[in-house]
Amino acid sequence: MTTVLHIDASVRAVSNPNPEHDSISKKLARRFISAFKSMIDIDEYMYRDVGINPPQYITQDWIGAVFTPEHNRTAEQKQVLAQSDEYIAELKKADIIVISSPMYNYGMPAQLKAWFDQIVRINKTFDFDLARGDRPLAPLLTGKTLVIITSSGEFGFEKGGINEAYGHLVPHLRTLSKYLGVTEIFEIASEYQEFADHRHQASLTQAEAKADKIAGELAKNLKPVTC
């Protein structure tokens, strides 16, 4: 059984009248999903475009509802948490999570952060116990694989790169991934978009090849062994 949860975060569409406005991260994610589906049967594919259909931002009422014991919640509080409940239910079902995101102002889009805010929730995806000392938070989910697909206008955000200190998108995703129950992470990145030169094309070509390769590796690991 393989269930995929695919989250796209770019505010741009995959295809636009002006191809220069197409979302690179979404196209790479679509390529990965297509390659993966061609190699293995997916039992369920769940898709959310949070860039175009953003989640609700959490509010004081949302926090109040979260910290109200479930059996004491009012109908209004249950409604406030309905979207969060739906997102978490999808997450729990997923074996593989694919998150595609552009880098906006050196970090993740507000819409993607809003999705995480709805999901990282006490007694749902983590618990809190002061008996653990200085690290009281612990994730409740485990065993999931995360594929991170990113695009950026600049370059060198990797460890040791020229812009390592400014790259907050992937590190933030990696930090939050434990609350998604992630135990294995793969990364695909396209850079140099704003330079629009041969380096961008080379980076994009490399990212496409990596998407195909990772899809193949995951499909191979998931296929049952026959005798």
Automatic annotation (TrEMBL):
What Pfam families does UniProt report for this protein, alphabetically? Flavodoxin_2
Cofactor notes: Binds 1 FMN per subunit.
UniProt EC number: 1.6.5.-, 1.7.1.17
Which SUPFAM superfamilies does this UniProt record tie to the protein?
Flavoproteins
Enzyme class, broadest EC rank: oxidoreductase
**What keywords would UniProt list here?**
Flavoprotein, FMN, NAD, Oxidoreductase
Cofactors: FMN
Query: Which reaction equations make up its catalytic activity?
Result: N,N-dimethyl-1,4-phenylenediamine + anthranilate + 2 NAD(+) = 2-(4-dimethylaminophenyl)diazenylbenzoate + 2 NADH + 2 H(+); 2 a quinone + NADH + H(+) = 2 a 1,4-benzosemiquinone + NAD(+)
Point out the coiled-coil segments of this chain: none
Which residue range or ranges hold the Flavodoxin-like fold domain? 15-213
Summarizing the function annotation, the protein's role is:
Also exhibits azoreductase activity. Catalyzes the reductive cleavage of the azo bond in aromatic azo compounds to the corresponding amines.
- Please state which protein family the record places this protein in: Belongs to the azoreductase type 1 family.
Partners and quaternary state?
Homodimer.
**UniProt-recorded name of the protein:** FMN dependent NADH:quinone oxidoreductase
Provenance organism:
Alteromonas gilva
